Amino acid sequence: MSEETRSEVAEEKSPETETRALPKEEEILEALKVVRDPEIPVNVVDLGLIYHVHVNPDGVVDIEMTLTAIGCPVQDMIKADAELAVMRVPGVRGVNIDFVWSPPWTPARMTEDGKRQMRMLGFNV
After folding, report:
1. What is the DSSP code string of 10-62?
2. Per the structure, how many domains does the chain have?
3. 83, part of any domain
């Protein structure tokens, strides 16, 4: 390839046409740590509410999560907060959140950090 051709190819590329690398599951989980259950002030990751994260080749992220109780009155708020948090991750083009109830959530699903946070709040976990 000649210098002139290389220069033309370089000029054709723009931030809009370059594809961004797909985010990793760890990046999605880190982004979700800003989402908190308002009734239990611990993030949804450390509470163990995130069951599955899948990043599709098109940049759409599918998330299976649960809540501490069926019929949780803040389900829509938690979903909206999670969607906003994940959409901020570079490379994410969309988010699908599916609430699942099996297996049911129990405190055993919490991370050690989540349990520590709960103990600091006076909960016996």
Report:
1. HHH--TTTSPPPPPPHHHHHHHHTT-EETTEEEETTTTT-EEEEEE-TTSEEE
2. 1
3. yes
> Do 65 and 51 meet the contact criterion of CB atoms below 8 Å apart?
yes
* 80 occurs within a structural domain: yes
Task: Decide if 104 is inside a domain.
Answer: yes
**Size of the chain, expressed as the number of residues it contains:** 125
- Give the residue among 29, 53, 39 at the shortest CA–CA distance from 111: 29
pLDDT at 50: 98
User: Which string of b and e fits 11-21 if b means at least 16 CB within 10 Å?
Assistant: eeeeeeeeeee
Give the predicted TM-score (pTM) of the model: 0.82
